[in-house]
Amino acid sequence: MHITLIPGELQELWDLWGLETLVLLSFIIQVILTVYGSRRKDIPGMWIRFTVWFTYFLSASLPKIIIGKLTVIPGSDPNKRNIIRELKALFAPLLLVQIGNPDAITAYSIEDNKLGLRQLLSLVLQVAVVIWIIIKSWTHSELSYLYLPLLTSGLIKHGELVWALKSALSKRSGIITIQEIDQEANMPGLFRFLPKDIPNIELILKAYYRFISLKPHRENWIYQPLYESLPQMSIDEYAPEDIFQITDAELSFMYDVLYTKAPIIYTKAGCTFRVLSFFNLVLTLCGFSVIFRRNFSRDLKACFIVGVLGGAVLMEAYQIAQLPFSDWAIIQMIKHQNIPLMIPCLRILGPQARNRKRWSNTLPQFNLLSFCIHDKPLTCGKILKLRSIDMWLKKNKYRTREKFPQELKALVVQEMKDIDGDRRLKPFNQRGEWSLGRYGSLNDIKWSVKRDFDKSIAIWHIATDICIYSDAQCNNSASPKIQMAKLLSDYMMYLLAMRPHMLSTTTAKIIFQHACDKLKDLLVQKEQSVNDEKEACRILKMEKAPQCSNSERKSETVVTSKWHMLKDAKRLARNLMARENKWQIICSVWVEMLCYAAANCSIDYHSEQIRRGGGLITHVWILLAHKTDKYHISD
């Protein structure tokens, strides 16, 4: 007995329209990537990352499947013309246009750039197969000649992708030389001739100048900070809001270099190729429309090709229309401001650029006490635990986001300036000692910042909560310092709990789990349930830490066996509450810890962070990079 898994009608429908279905799906994927490819830099969250990842993966795989199906098209027969074969062969150069990827995304992650050479070889092979399909299907008919402009457009789009990958790959490594810096020697002149009555364009030019001089995405920079010798590099005299605006734009340039076609599009060659590509797409659409109206007006497959070609033209037109609304476009207008219409364009686009969203402008928050109080077993928790994702799901459930307030920007900028006075360009190797020294608290509290970094974060996080809920001002939130301390404390705990690799510590997961266990052990001793952080802090402040049983001691890890986390946190809280300037100390230490984490985090992790909605730690990193002599070369 013969059993068929696929009904005959469905199989016939797939044989008839399967190729067109795949081409349509590939086109829809390109539309999604065009619209959302770059939005991940300013939209945090799982849904945008999954959408871009899934469509990017399909955009790389689906064309290969379609090309594979096209290779089985029979060759041309000089004695008999096959219109269906010629129409199908038209998909081959059209796929090259799609393989070229939208302007908004050339790589999903930094790993894609590292595998650039492998991708280049794959792309070259796909071009060769497409050309072979065209040659095999060539019949010297009107339809065959339309392969040429479409192939030209596809080769240009393909070349853009190869150029972008090669550019990102070559700029990821290597030492920046004085010669490279001298290539931008005309930049100071641009500041002198910059129109003073156009707001915001000076900030964008400053960001671009700092970016191309530092090239922060490179793995090696080996020169002393340029702001000492080049006054145009300094942003010390700017308001905190403008400093972060400059940093936003600088990181946006970095994102574009690593993940988009922007660096190659905004060149003379890039613009020329873009116009040529668009012209060839329009030429193909117009030519096919004429042939279609004359010969195939009732052919559904020909109608489908007209629709897909029209969609490709519209998508290309949309991408061209978006080109002026970019920081790169403003830089090119500034460089060529002597050309007519450039200044009027700057007057329109410059002020608009200030409101452009370049990152999420939010602070992820994670409070350890709140997590321990409200943590409940998940449905199917045992199964999830076997797959080691139960804790990840729980953390995401209790992670929140707060808008990044202007007061915190001002605090971070001021504290970093104070730290720079003590640091003097040295690599960042302190995590609170400079701040404690400035407030005369080094002798009493130094022990808390000399613990392992992840332990120090846990101690200070709990101590900060105890101070907050023990302070009389907390009830009416009278002190902005309290709010800033809370935001910084919960942000650093978020890094420890959910982004531990950015803290350059290998024991963060162990420390986090240990802290959770100790807090839960203390809270469950109470007969009444604890419902909020304030009640938990009162218990922490008043109750003695529970003694460990022999079995619990044996289950301790080497990392936590001699560490009394709750005792350390209570001791630190007592020391801080005895001081009138405790909130200045707490905020200052948190900023210094943040600076330490940012400076010692791998460039790859910062590069990853800017495609996840950005983050305060990466902004701090770029600010520090401009004022750090990596090798501490002294005169």
UniProtKB/TrEMBL annotation:
Keyword line: Membrane, Transmembrane, Transmembrane helix
Segments traversing the membrane: 16-35, 47-67, 120-139, 271-292
Keyword Cytoplasm tagged: no
Ranges of residues in domain DUF4220: 53-371
The keyword 4Fe-4S is annotated on this UniProt entry: no
Domain of life per record: Eukaryota
Positions in coiled-coil regions: none
Name under which the protein is recorded: DUF4220 domain-containing protein
Protein species of origin: Flemingia macrophylla
Source taxonomy: Eukaryota, Viridiplantae, Streptophyta, Embryophyta, Tracheophyta
